[in-house]
Design a protein that fits this description.
The protein is an alpha/beta fold. It contains 6 helices and 10 strands, in the order E-E-E-H-E-H-H-E-H-E-E-E-E-H-E-H. The chain has a 6-stranded mixed beta sheet. The longest helix is centred in the middle third of the chain and has 14 residues, at 114-127.
Length: 232
């Protein structure tokens, strides 16, 4: 199976200016994801998709392939990730280069390893699903069976629509949330169904210490603390 590793990194970050190349514990944020992806044994190709010359320059210095400059209309605040992936696939298709799937690796989730990427790809190949995402278990206190929403009268009702609340913690089902580390999707699902997930979705549990998603300055401080604590 031919899998394209895609690292998206646009230049217009507002919450943390120049976030993707901001120095975190001695190296640009993007370098963590690049190094992990380069350590993978199961990615056929690995590329950067970016509109920003400074990010592109950093990536090239780290020996990451940059086959094109992303169009500006795919690098705005509300530009969907799906469009970024489809653009890359169509770029290669015009050169008669095809991939069976795309592995999306986000810079804002820096603490992954090549080994974990390969474990995810292995599980994806074995699953016969349309896509695979990395997940974390939702803490019991936030389990959907213990959460509420307002009804039309302004009262609370169970978010799940059930009439009775699950009374014992032991009876709660395990539920998960996406953690942003890895998305792997079949090419036909991306192009023909316009979906990152398709109709059959596999998952892999991420180690809990991997899942710091850097969107705010507070997240950045958590990442710094994590690195200092682990002497990384």
């Amino acid at each position: 199976m031919r899998i394209l590793g895609l690292i998206p990194a646009r230049g217009g970050s507002k919450s943390i200016p120049k976030k993707n190349i901001k120095i975190l514990n001695g190296k640009p944020l993007i370098q963590y994801t690049i190094e992990a992806a380069q350590d993978s044994k199961k990615l056929t190709n690995l590329i950067l998709s970016s509109d920003d010359e400074a990010i592109i320059e950093v990536a090239k210095k780290l020996n990451l392939e940059v086959p094109f400059v992303r169009p500006k209309h795919l690098a705005e605040d509300k530009s969907p990730t799906l469009g970024v992936i489809q653009h890359a696939l169509k770029f290669y298709a015009e050169q008669n280069i095809c991939f069976d799937a795309v592995c999306l690796l986000q810079v804002t989730s820096p603490f992954k390893t090549g080994k974990f990427i390969d474990e995810a790809i292995k599980k994806f190949k074995e699953s016969d699903c349309d896509a695979l995402v990395s997940v974390q278990r939702v803490p019991d206190d936030y389990n959907p069976h213990w959460t509420f929403k307002k009804d039309k009268k302004g009262n609370l009702e169970l978010f799940t629509g059930e009439k009775e609340i699950v009374s014992r913690r032991q009876d709660l089902p395990e539920v998960y949330h996406r953690d942003g580390l890895i998305y792997i999707t079949k090419t036909n699902v991306l192009l023909e169904q316009n979906s990152l997930y398709g109709s059959k979705l596999a998952y892999i549990k991420s180690p809990s210490n991997y899942t710091i998603n850097i969107d705010t300055l507070e997240d950045w401080k958590k990442a710094e603390a994590f690195l200092n604590l682990n002497n990384m």
